[in-house]
Amino acid sequence: QMLGSKKEWILPGISNEDVVSMYEGNSNLFWAERYGQMLGMTDLWVKQCGNSHTGSFKDLGMTVLVSQVNKIRKQNKNVISAVGCASTGDTSAALSAYCAAADIPSIVFLPADKISLAQLVQPIANGALVLSIDTDFDGCMRLIREVTAETPIYLANSMNSLRIEGQKTAAIEIVQQFDWQVPDWLIIPGGNLGNVYAFYKGFKMCMDLGLTDRMPKMVVAQAANANPLYRMYKSNWEVFEPMQAETTFASAIQIGDPVSIHRAVKALKDTDGIVEEATEEELMDAAALADRTGMFNCPHTGVALAALMKLRENGTIAPSDRTVVVSTAHGLKFVNSKIAYHAKEIENFASKYSNPPVSVREDLGSVMDVIGKRLGTTGM
Question: Which bin fits 369, alpha (ψ -120 to 50), beta or left (φ > 0)?
Answer without folding.
Answer: alpha
